[in-house]
Amino acid sequence: MATPEKKEEPKKVTPLLELPKCSKATPSPNPDEYGDMITIVVGSAENVRKFYTYQGLLAHYSTYFKAALKDDWKEGTLKTVNLKDDNPEVFKAFFHWIYTGKLYFALDASGKIPLSEQLICEIYVFGDARGSTNLYNAAIDLLLQKTHQEWKVPLDQIPYVYENTLPGSALRKYLVDDVVETYRFRRLADPTQRETELPRYPQEFLAEIVVAFMALGSKPIPSSAGYGNMPIGQDNWAKYIKPLLCSRYHNHPAPPA
Ligand SMILES: [Zn+2]
After folding, report:
1. Which of 44, 63, 86 finishes a domain?
2. Which residue range(s) make up the domain with 244?
3. Which of these, 37, 71, 148, 180, could form a disulfide with 17 (CB 3.0-4.6 Å)?
4. Mind giving me the DSSP string for 119-145?
5. C-alpha of residue 254 to centroid of ligand 1, in Å
6. Is the domain of 192 the same as that of 149?
7. How remote is the CA of residue 115 from the centroid of ligand 1, in Å?
8. What is the overall mean pLDDT for the chain?
9. Can you give the pLDDT at residue 235?
10. How far is the CA of 173 from the centre of ligand 1 (A)?
C-alpha cells in the first residue's frame, strides 16, 4: 500500500500588488478596423504554435506588424507571418494581452503570477524588438508585481537582459534599481563564495550598480532599506516604487497622428 504523502503546509502567498493603470497607454482599437485574419506561426522544430488574430489588432499594438502586414509585402499578401526564432510562450502572452490587457489569463490556484521571471523578461525583449511600447511597459509592470510577490530580485535574468537590451533600456534600469533598493550582495561579500558568484553579473551591470550607489552619496537607500525582512521591507518597497513606476520605467508612445 502506498504511503500517504505528507501534507505540506501551504506557504502564504503575497497578494498581487495592485498597480495604477498607465494613463498614457494606447487605447484599444475600434473593432471596425480589425480587418483580415492573420496566421502567425511561432517557433521552430517541435516547438511551433499557430495563432490566429486580426491584422488591425496586431498593427495597432506593434509597429513591426504594422509594417510587415502591408499589402505589398509577402506577409501582407499571404496573411501569414513566420516568427521562427521566437518563443511561442512569449507570443501567447502578447496574444492574451492584445485581447485582455493582461499577459496571462488568471493567477494560478494559489494566487501566484503564472509566468516566470525569465518569460516576463523575454516578453519585454519581444515588445522592444517588435515595436510594442505598451507591451514592454506591461512586462515591466508584471515583473515589478512578480518581484514583490516572490520578494526576490530576478538575479538569474541579468545576463539575459544585458545580452538582449540596449544601454538605457527600462528593464536594465529596473533591475539596477531593484538590486540597489533591495539586495545586499551577501555572497559577493563572502570571499569563499565570490569566485562562483561573480560570473553571474555582467560587467556593465556591476558598473551601473557602482554608479547608482555613488549617486546616493550619504543618502539612505530610497526604499528605506527594505531588503531581507518580510513583510516590512516588502511593504516599504511597494509603497516607494508604486508611484514611480510610470514616470521611471514606462515609455509612452506618441499618440497616432
Ligand atoms: Zn505609463
Report:
1. 86
2. 101-249
3. 148
4. HHHHHHHHHHHTT-HHHHHHHHHHHHH
5. 12
6. yes
7. 22
8. 90
9. 85
10. 15
